[in-house]
Amino acid sequence: MSILDILQAVLHGPFGDFPFAVVAWQALLVGSIYLAVRLLRGRIPKAAFAPLRPVGHGASVALRNMYVLIAIGLLLPLAELFTGGYLISVTYGIELYVMLAIGLNIVVGFTGLLDLGYVAFFAVGAYVYGIFASPQLAEVTHATLYFLVPAGTTPGIHISMWVLLPIAGLVAALFGVLIGIPTLRLRGDYLAIVTLGFGEITRIFANNLDTPINITNGPSGVTSIDPVWIGSYSFGDPNHYLGPFRFTPFLNYYYLVFVLILLTVFVVNRLANSRVGRAWGAIREDETAAEVAGINTRNLKLLAYASGGFFGGLAGAVFAAGQHIIAPESFQLFVSILVLCMVVAGGMGSIPGSVLGAVVVGAVYFLTSQLQYLSILVFGLLLVILIIFRPQGILPSAQRKLELESDDTETPTTRGETMPA
Amino acid sequence: MENCLNHLTSGFTVDGLIQQLINGLSLGSIYALIALGYSMVYGVLELINFAHGDVFMIGTFAVLGVVQRFGLTDQTSFVIVVPALLVAMIAAMGLCAALGFTIEKVAYRPLRNAPRLAPLISAIGVSFVLQAWVATYVSANYFTLPNLIHGEIPILPDVSISYVQILMFVASFAMMFFLQLLVRRTRLGRGMRAVAQDRDAAALMGVNMDRVVSFTFVIGSALAGVAAILWTLNYSFNQTVGAVVGLKAFTAAVIGGIGSIPGAMLGGFLLGLAEALGAGYISSLTCGVFNSSYQNVFAFAFLILMLVFRPSGILRQRVSDRA
Amino acid sequence: MSYVPSTTASTAALTYAAASNALQTAHQGAGTVLKIGFIGILSGQYTSYGVDEQRGAQLALDAVNAAGGITVGGTTYTLQLDSQDDAADPTKGAQGATKLVDDKVVAVIGGTFSGATIAESKIFSDNGITQISPSATNPKYTSQGFKTAFRVVGRDDQQGPADADFIVKTLGCLNVGVMDDKSQYGQGLADAVNTQVPVDKGTVVDREHVDTNQTDFSAQLTTMKGKNPDVIFYGGYSAQFGPIVQQARRLGIKATFVSGDGSQDADAIKLAGSDAEGLFASNAGPAPSLQPGYAAFAAAYKAKYNADIFQYAPQAFDATNIVINAIKTAGGDKAAILAAVTATNNYQGVAQGYTFTSTGDVKVSIFTIYKVESGAWKAVRAVNLNVS
Asked: How far apart are CA B48 and CA A88, in angstroms?
């Protein structure tokens, strides 16, 4: 009996498939969870909810731990020998989410700007690579161009990933600035809803820009996207072997994203601990005070959007190459929400938290997807429970933790009223 | 170019325009009813109740359940349809109200002093749960109701307004009137306004915060129940309808000025009109460069323009700092 | 509130597992278990399509196993279905395809919709595994140059012209309004109609688009009404087609509605309610009544699943039988199976006869036009197309 069967059994209850019995059973479950929440919130000593160990913006994670993690990441694919390629295909999917979570963390965690349209940057990056490294533009430009990749016979523009990767990042960053400018004055929930709108608009445009000029190929999406090449080594070729070890396309891309993650963590960590990072923190805490203190909040907010967008764009470009087809339906609102959940679950403002959040939430998401809608149901429940019991996330940043705790003590009056237990 | 001019003129008739206006306003009146729920909750707690759309969705399924139980069809006589629909409305309102009350208690109340993001995430979680629950235990298919209320009033030879559309206007205005009365004239309404202005001061003045908040959720959700029955009379629905329509309704609340009851109504009507006219005429106005599948863009474009140029909404003055 | 697709699917999956386990033990001594992959939509809005196909494939395997398996060159093979969900999402499709490769399947039936199927086809091609899709209709799937990609259904660019010919030539309606749902399938089909109508000397008076999560269609329909079409063609699924018809009638639109295979199902009739009478829709393959073996298949389906065929189960059944025929000559070697499937010549299935072209399409594609009469789809006309 797998864990999924157990889960299903718990959700269905002991009374079989009779609908009313299922409803009653689930109402009972929700009721008892609620009661448990009420009882536990007041009774369990606060220490039990304290973070495992407060960590900073990544800098205070011991270097030794970093090396261990890197070693695990590099050696994990050896498991392929025993489990086959599926594990790597899922791990690769999670890796892309790690990139996205780190990027979104800049906007949401560091700067405190709630962005529900992050998938737009992912989409922009994917389309930049997809359009300029596939036969997509053949009918528009009537040109065949192979730039820094081994020449082939397919018409269209085929530019190397190593040229397009930074371009994809920069275009996504520019897109971030474009979204940022009209929303500079907005805060909190309003910002969330506007960014959500931008994310949806991006997808709708991708779905419709096949007329009057066919740029995105509409709902059919861009197909036959080129793989990444290093010299004459194609990432899309399934027949690379090293002894018994097969470098499948997924594995090639796994290592590519792994390197990108290391670079991203390095850059974002430096950013976070620089003047810029501290200014972001100031904006998050009190924008008016930050402005009075001489921080150029406008430029810094735009910079946050731009850098968040940049890393989203990078992830998107690799995603397009690895999947070989991209379509607007891959860039749904759901992706933005999933990434946001990762950042929140991991602990806002913490880079190790974002990584861990993406790994945990991503694994839960991919591995329970055979449960169909039940997977989403469980996912939603976990989200509510997590945020109620541990709003600071699994690995909160030291700084944010202090804020959360001082928040608690500052408002004793309302607290007493809402928590009768 | 000449081709384009032809396109423009052939696409436009006065009859068509009037019909689009009627369609837009009737859709808008449903947006308005749902927007009221968002607006009230935001006014009191400054929280986007992301699960509100899904409460509305549960309401549509409650109506479906009652209609199927009564076995209503196109041919069912008026004498049976009216009481059955009343039962359906009560069922939808009751279920929605109970659900709204429970959601607030379970998912929002423990987070009242948490960072602002926390209740939003919790709301998203609740929204997932409700949608997945319906998809798993009820159905993931789309549904429509039979033509329960027949007939229309002709206005021009080719334009008519159906009884269902009239019902939508009447119901939404009646609900708004009732809500205004509630907020202006009752003790709880006064409490709501007090909490909206200053939570801590209201608590110090002896307003029972928890009761006010629960009450707000119950009223807002019951209104979503009313919206649900109106929706099912004319449109299709599945478990995602709440997410799609809810987003539009929230947009309507912001356009009108969040926290304001007439504002939510105005925003709903404006958004309904913008969508109907936009989707109806964008193709001919742009010579086919843009087409009617941009319909969902209008709501967001409207929202963004509104927030850029008048973040306080049409009917409410707010300092931009809170917006 | 009676139809519960996902639970039905999971209980069904359990039943298969139990059944095939039992068979496996029964034949353990006799021979080897060969895994046939299935990939398709087993979750989400379009679950009904994938589950239907999964059942078709399972029925084909059941028949073989019940007869004691396949004996080739002294080895007896029993067959087992290995199902993966792609949720119509290319990313999940690629992962599921990789899982099937890991599981060492010898051939694959699926995917359901074109987007995910195209993503999967690259992985199956990389690994030399035969893939036969029962329902991916987008031309792109077989035009990528993959030798492993086959389909047992006509393409959108064949069905569209068949629909346009029917509208203009058979119904004699010259003013056509074309609508689609801006999905890969819906737009592809509507575009093909849009191109063919002028060729047939008709006129497309209006082109409108809706969205797959849209529920209010009044803006598009009111514009459509202003252009006075005789016929409105809709490219898309029944989830929108039914409500569109209902709302159009409420707006006083009298035009005849025609749609494609995505709408030729029981849901369209249920959703359009009393307005369903007189709707037309095309579907791949000849009318079931003309096809020997169809009735027996439908009965077996009903007996095992206590449900009616939803849409592509016959195609999935045929695709699986094509693979089974290949195994009968090629044994358990995937390269030999690929060669044998490629050589398939005039195989008579329950949906139609199949010969593959060099690209992997079906050589003779037959479409049938159906009409709703007294609450059910009735075949009214057959259209044959020769694929060059």
From this structure: 39
